[in-house]
Amino acid sequence: MYGHQYVTIMLGCGDMAISYDIVLYQKEDCSKIDIAIKILKEFPKPINEGYVLADSLYSSESIIQTTIDIGFEYIGALKTNRKIYPVGYLQDGIKISDYTKLIEKQELDLVTVDCKRYYVYTYVGKITGIEKVKIVIS
After folding, report:
1. Are 7 and 39 in contact (CB under 8 A)?
2. How many Å apart are CA 126 and CA 124, to the nearest integer?
3. How far, in Å, CA of 64 to CA of 77, rounded?
4. CA distances from 94 to 60, 83, 100 (A)
5. CA-to-CA distance for 66 and 59, rounded, in angstroms?
6. Among 13, 37, 111, 135, which lies 20 to 30 A Cα-Cα from 74?
7. Cβ distance 93 to 102 under 8 Å?
C-alpha cells in the first residue's frame, strides 16, 4: 500500500504559523500546481505586504503569475536548469547552471547569515513567462 500526498498551505504572521488548507492530491483529478492555484485564488488581498514562500516544485510560471495577480510577492527556489535571459542571452536564454560559470568573483556580494559567510549573485531580469524577477544565486 502506498502513502497519501497532500498539498498543504500554511499562513504565517510573525512567530505564528497555522494551517490554512490541506488538500489530498489525487493524480487523476488535477495537478498539485492546479490545487495550489485554486487555493491561492481564495486568499484575500494582503493589507500591507504578503509573500508566498514555496519550494522549486511550485516555482512554475502559473504559480508565480497567480501570486502576482492576487497581490502577493513570490519567494521560491528555482531548479538550476531554469532559463534566465540576461544581456547577451535575451533571445534564447541560458540555464542558471551555465550562467553561474560565467560570473566573475568581483560580481559577487559577501553576506553573513548565522555567522556563516556566503558569496551571492543577484540577477534581476526575465525568466521564461515572467518579465521581471529577482534571483539570488548562492
Report:
1. yes
2. 7
3. 12
4. 17, 5, 10
5. 11
6. 111
7. no
